Write the structure tokens for this entry.
Amino acid sequence: MTAPKLTVVGLGSGDPDQMTLGVWRRLQAANRIFVRTAQHPAMSMLQDNGIAYTSFDALYEQHESFPDVYKAIAEALIAEAKNTSEDESLIYAIPGHPMVAERTVQLLREQCPEAGIDLQIIGGESFLDQAFVSLGIDPIEGFALLDAADLQPSLLQPQLHTLIGQVYDAFTASDVKLALMERYPDDYEVVVGHALGVANEQQIIRVPLYELDRTPGYGNLSLIWVPRSDDASLRNRSFERLHEIVSILRSPEGCPWDQEQTHQSLRKNFIEELYEALEAIDNDDPDGMQEEFGDVILQVMLHSQMEEETGAFSVYDVIQSLNEKLIFRHPHVFGDLDASDSQEALVNWEQMKAEEKRLKGTDVNRPSVLDGIPPDLPALMKAYKLQKKAAKVGFDWDTLDPVLSKIEEELAELREAIASKSEEEQASELGDLLFAVVNASRFIHADPEEALSRTNKKFRSRFAYIEEQLRISGKQFDQTDLTEMDRWWDEAKRHS
């Protein structure tokens, strides 16, 4: 028994004269014709010659999304093909070329073999042909075709001519505009093309990007062209350009200072940049954050570049590992688990983190539950992490009261050490007191590093008030006393 057949043909990009002779002959000889949409200029050829067809336009009204429409069309065509006799010819006609921006054809290519249907695809002139002619684009210069319905800023490359198809309406154009604004200036000139190659209907409109969705006329035959550019400011918005710059700096033709650096020589810089970024955060300084975050990223890029030069890994490996870790540790977002609040999300994170270690076998090399804490963490942060790890295995008090009692005990021991013991013993008792205070911070859910940072900031502000009062009074510090400074300190407290 011969397998049922389904032939897909392309009607061309618009004007009826663009339909190929082979496709026209197929349409004339067909027993049954289905078209994705009747809203296409080439359909006048069928209408003028009395060729009957069935349109799927009604499905666009019945479904909420284009993917659902395309799925329904493919299912309907497969059902029709199965009911077609051997001597009948069934044709599915689509605008443009069947293999260019045509999801229904991709679905048919996936599903027809399983359904036992012989699928034949016959090309036609695509909208790209007319775009190249009407817009004057030579694709050899670099070219990308993107779908307006799923346009991601990461896909945009300013050095390529970019054509964006499926811009059916102003709402879609608005989404395109927002995506383009991630990579291009608001006033960057883009081109809107309507019915390219269709006589008496073609429109080519040049507009600044911010007006893209205010331009009328969007429909089935609309596209957007973003001309290529070698403007350095556009390239500098890409991660690839950053990777290129860092590799040049480290190359023999690059910067002598960058060439000489090692992981160890940059270690101090890394720490300093992190603290400068934290300062910008604490100051709620967006401009400062933008600059300092860039400096932190530079440190990551330099260290990664050093390893790329040895063949160990590249920054792209770093990014891949991070992406995989984030997906793995968020099963409540990317998997089947649920998390109704941040606490449940944190539980999921810790469980997946433990599972990750088990799969990698890293726990085998850590005989102590206290392992895994970076040795160079600030002491306050390290104490907090040590206590948290110990608490996870039950080495902890149940309530806050004994923690506070421990602070009082350590304070008493410090007083005793100050009265009768060496400076080394006094420092040891001070450390015990600080460790006990960190323990209290866990019970009241306060990060000790952040708490102390806030207090430091508060101290600077109040002390600055004392300095200001001295200036107003025309005094120096040697012309005042603690009583007067305490009074100003209390005033600062009331004002803050």
Remarks:
- The two ends are 90 Å apart (CA to CA).
- The longest strand covers residues 5-10.
